[in-house]
Amino acid sequence: MNDTPHLSNLAAIDAAHHIHPFSDMKELNAKGTRIITRAEGVYIYDQTGKKYLDGFAGLWCVNVGYGRREIAEAAFRQMQELPYYNAFFGTTTEPTTLLAQKIASHAGPHMNRVFFTNSGSEATDTWFRMARVYWKALGKGTKTQVIARKNGYHGSTVAGASLGGMKSMHEQGSLPIEGVHHIGQPYWYADGGDLSRDEFGLKMARELNDKIDELGEENVAAFVAEPIQGAGGVIVPPDTYWPEIARICKARNILLVSDEVICGFGRLGSWFGYQHFGVEPDLAPIAKGLSSGYLPIGGVLVSDRVADVLLNEVGDFNHGFTYSGHPVAAAAALANLAIIEGEKLVERVRDDIGPYFAARWKSLEDHEMVGEAQCVGLIGGLQITADKATRRRFEKPDAIGAAVRNYCLEHGLVMRATGDRMLASPALTISRPEVDEMIGTLEAALDHLRDTTPR
Ligand code: PXG
Question: How many helices (H) and strands (E) does the chain have?
Answer without folding.
Answer: 18, 15
